[in-house]
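Could you join me in thinking about how sequence relates to backbone shape in a protein? We need material for that, and I hope you will provide a protein of your own picking. Label the sequence line and the structure token line clearly, so we can match residues to local backbone shapes. Would you write everything just below, so we can both look at the same thing?
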Amino acid sequence: MRRVVVLTTGGTIASRPDRRGASRAVDGAGTLLARLAGEPGVPVEGVDILRVGSYLLAPTDMAGIVTRAHEALADPEVLGVVVTHGTDALEETAFLADLVHDAPRPVVFTGAQRDASAVDTDGPRNLADAISVAAAPEAAGLGALVVFDGRIYPARGTRKTHTLAPAAFAAPDSGPVGLVRDGAVTLTARPVRLPVLPLAELDLDGVRVDIVPCYPGADTVALDAVTAAGAQGVVLEATGAGNANHAVCAAVARLTAAGVVVGLSTRVHAGPVAALYGNGGGVDLIEAGAVPLGSLRPAQARILLLALLARDRDPARATRDLPLLAGTSPG
């Protein structure tokens, strides 16, 4: 039977307040689907995977979700897959799915900002929209997508931009690729698809990549601590277009020489990393061995580096492939 598979993992869309007023994920797939305002227009199969807030997910959990989505797509009768997910870490799991997505049928991520007990909860509408996109022939070949508040975003470059508002997600450097309203899907752009990584090599167990912020007056204590704890990779959340200071540059040179992969991102909302400044800036960081990651922000840059290191734990290969998969190299 031609159908859409909905994989539920918890998050606000499945949450209700306890006696303290603290929300916890409690609703399963049956409850989420029963709360849809009307018939979705396509048969839907609900499958429970997890029931947690996404702030509790580890990378191995994210890989498990991605694997379950690919297992569902192995059935040719499945039109597409929807994953309901907490919004805190949705951008990471969606990007991980995109990195290994080699099927024409989409995996669509969605969630909610208002819990299931709210009279104006946005969960049922977001879920209905995501089902419509997953079933739409127009979505073929788009990879992993994020559907939220009536907009369709590519997984790559999409991130949570508001803590509470229903329009919680944006893709600042590219914008949405379409809209969905009352079951009607309209595409306005198609995301650029980059080479995919083999799902079979996505073994994240034991792979550690940390994000280290750079800020005025930052020293190397955090950088040294995460590598001493076993990080095989580090993403620098630099200032501006990708700048730090002399101490951080020296540490990057030392760590990359020792086989630690260092990716260079930024804390700025939009725009690419660019090698503009010396004297401890981006030019010096890149000369020290940091790899500029274009418009990828730290959360997704970390996922990319985790996936590259997971293949064979080869830092030289990961460093070589980072620009291609970050979208900063033509190949």
About this structure: The domain at 3-187 is CATH 3.40.50.1170 (Rossmann fold). The chain has two domains: 3-187, 206-326.
